[in-house]
Design a protein that fits this description.
By secondary structure, the chain is an alpha/beta fold. The chain has a single domain (about 5-240), classed as Rossmann fold (3-Layer(aba) Sandwich), CATH 3.40.50. The protein contains 11 helices and 6 strands. A 6-stranded parallel beta sheet has the order 2-1-3-4-5-6, sandwiched between helices. Helix 9 links the parallel strand 5 and strand 6. Helix 1 packs across helix 11 and helix 6 crosses helix 7 (about 150-160). The protein is globular, with a radius of gyration of 16 Å. The mean pLDDT is about 95.
């Protein structure tokens, strides 16, 4: 049994954007250590240059660890790509991987990996100030009523750790050219049926191709940790067999 669960975020989001979820999950599995690590260019590492490959992101995540024991990974969106590549390259380091709303080239068309109604929104977000940008992002990743308080928190954090548009494009390029083989670790998928950013079909396609179990969330958006934190925490605990 592993003693550490590492949480990995997606495109241009950092540990901060998990909100209260890590604390919630930690309360459910106190015998494990819940750790969140930022990719260069995101979160508290926003001043750094993002790797332009998922492999490079894996190496950065690994270099930031304080121990070398096996880990369980919980990863959302592009974080799932990082988790998959980590498990593929270093099978002795990853015990299990739970991918949330993750898509990979080769399993589904581009218009399912990023739904077309978001193209203009993303362009507007990149050209906007922190508050407007975070408001647009919220509209894409959450199915909940607009939470102005949360958006303001995200904007204040972005002011402290400002995004660099160049890093966005480096990360997007890394995600677009990413390819991976099925890792040998225990592998699970979670998909939001009503995801407005990435079609849940993209996640289902991977799960079916690799014969991996998939759990469907019927109400939450792309970021289930925002919309359904308790639901997500319970599913993770069940998967890790530590109930």
């Amino acid at each position: 049994m592993t003693n550490e669960v590492i949480l990995l975020r997606g495109l241009f989001r950092g540990c901060y954007h998990w909100g209260d979820f890590p604390t919630l999950l930690q309360s459910e599995i106190p015998e494990k250590t819940i750790t969140c690590i930022d990719v260069p260019g995101n979160g508290e590492l926003s001043s750094q240059v993002s790797p332009n490959t998922i492999d490079g992101m894996v190496e950065s995540i690994r270099s930031q660890r304080n121990q070398n024991s096996k880990v369980d990974l919980l990863a959302i969106s592009m974080g799932g790509m990082i988790g998959l590549k980590w498990a593929e390259l270093y099978p002795g380091e990853v015990e299990s991987l739970i991918c949330i709303n993750t898509s990979v080239k080769g399993f589904s068309p581009f218009y399912e990996r990023l739904l077309p109604q978001n193209y203009l929104k993303i362009a507007l977000a990149l050209a906007s100030g922190s508050y407007r940008r975070e408001k647009i992002i919220y509209s894409m990743v959450s199915n909940q009523k607009l939470n102005i308080g949360l958006v303001k928190k995200w904007a204040r954090y972005d002011d402290l750790h400002p995004m660099k548009v160049g890093n966005f494009w480096r990360q997007l390029s890394a995600a677009n050219k990413f390819q991976v083989s099925r890792p040998s670790c225990r592998l699970y998928f979670i998909a939001s049926e009503k995801d407005k950013l990435v079609s849940h079909k993209a996640t289902l396609a991977m799960a079916e191709a690799w014969g991996a179990p998939v759990i469907i969330n019927e109400v939450g958006g792309h970021d289930i940790a925002i919309d359904n934190p308790n639901w997500l925490s319970q599913r993770v605990v069940n998967i890790l067999n530590v109930t």
